[in-house]
Backbone:
């Protein structure tokens, strides 16, 4: 099957692979510890671990965009900031 | 009845997953791939990194279109939601009036978007349109082709005409599901019309209002066909929303890379705003 029309590149393939691995990881986590671990965090409403992953990914996208627009094209610091943000979300939200 | 757990039931979800993959995931992946490359056609691509995202974020064109989109959605929601509630409250609950009202309300929803645009494009024309001619006869200087304010007013009235029915039908569905006992209890307590609305009807409509709010926000934020047919984004760029700008960029200019970057940013904004609205409204629903 020819997927050249999708214009794949190594960085984008790695990006989607990382997202897929996260989803698989969440599936395994749910299998090991069912129920989604709902709790009320700093945002004062109930979130499951799936919600927390969604908030982490969406927030990371905006961190990258903000970094790109305000600082520059070197996104490694944005990635590091996103990782810290995601840890914060999973810990406190 | 006792609930049984059968993990094989998950296989029933597979057809949906396949459909979503073909209709959403694969196109989204392709757009992401395009957003970091440049192409001149012939299936040849050149790595561009984050250049297109930077171009979009630094362009006034993007921020102006985004501002127009946000203002348009805010006006639409501010008009359609209250108006839909008022009409639903005044619709008959019994008798021959019910089917008549429901059919009348459903009619605008059945008309395709481009036809709605064409109707209003002709309706508003100063030379032949009923609205345009009538306003001109009354001495009102109305011309949606030349005046940005007139173009905005036309688009807003058109959207209200087209989509308020959706809010009405959703609210009406919420209202008819309220048992008569609630109204009888309110009558015994001597509740005012406002109290009945505030403490019985509004809480019962909350869920359908959430759906109406989200649907109308997402639709109005992604609006394309009607303004494109009526104004084509003009006069000037006064009604160029993000979707119109996106099509101009992708198809008019064949700038697929910048258009893909704009698509992703556009998608992220819709995702964020929808999530905020959904969370705020479901949280307040759970608390109250």
Residues:
């Amino acid at each position: 099957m020819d997927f050249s029309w999708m214009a794949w590149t190594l960085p984008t393939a790695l990006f989607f692979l990382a997202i897929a691995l996260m989803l698989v990881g969440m599936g395994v986590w749910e299998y090991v510890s069912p129920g989604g671990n709902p709790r009320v965090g700093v945002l004062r409403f109930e979130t499951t671990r799936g919600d927390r992953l969604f908030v982490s990914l969406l927030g990371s996208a905006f961190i990258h965009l903000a970094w790109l627009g305000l600082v520059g094209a070197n996104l490694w610091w944005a990635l590091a900031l996103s990782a810290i943000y995601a840890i914060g979300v999973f810990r406190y939200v | 009845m006792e609930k049984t757990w059968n993990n094989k039931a998950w296989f029933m979800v597979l057809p949906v997953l396949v459909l979503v993959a073909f209709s959403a995931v694969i196109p989204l992946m392709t757009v992401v791939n395009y957003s970091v490359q440049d192409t001149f056609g012939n299936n040849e691509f050149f790595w561009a990194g984050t250049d297109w995202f930077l171009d979009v974020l630094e362009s006034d064109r993007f921020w102006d279109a985004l501002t127009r989109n946000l203002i348009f959605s805010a006006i639409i929601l501010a008009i359609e939601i209250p108006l839909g509630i008022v009409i639903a409250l005044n619709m008959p609950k019994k008798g021959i009036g019910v089917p008549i009202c429901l059919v009348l309300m459903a009619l605008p929803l059945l008309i395709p978007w481009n036809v709605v645009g064409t109707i209003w494009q002709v309706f508003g024309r100063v030379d032949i349109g009923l609205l345009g001619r009538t306003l001109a006869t009354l001495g009102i200087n109305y011309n949606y082709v030349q005046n940005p304010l007139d173009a905005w007013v036309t688009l807003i009235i058109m959207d209200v005409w087209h989509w308020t029915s959706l809010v009405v039908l959703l609210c009406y569905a919420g209202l008819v599901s309220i048992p008569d006992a609630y109204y009888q209890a309110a009558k015994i307590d001597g509740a005012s019309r406002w109290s009945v609305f505030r403490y019985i009807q509004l809480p019962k409509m909350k869920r359908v209002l959430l759906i109406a709010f989200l649907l109308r926000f997402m639709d109005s934020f992604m609006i394309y066909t009607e303004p494109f047919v009526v104004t084509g984004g003009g006069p000037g760029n006064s009604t160029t929303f993000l979707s119109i700008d996106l099509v101009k960029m992708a198809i008019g200019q064949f700038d697929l890379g910048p258009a893909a970057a704009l698509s992703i940013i556009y998608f992220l904004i819709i995702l964020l705003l929808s999530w905020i609205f959904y969370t705020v409204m479901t949280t307040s629903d759970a608390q109250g």
The first strand of chain B starts at residue 37 and ends at 39.
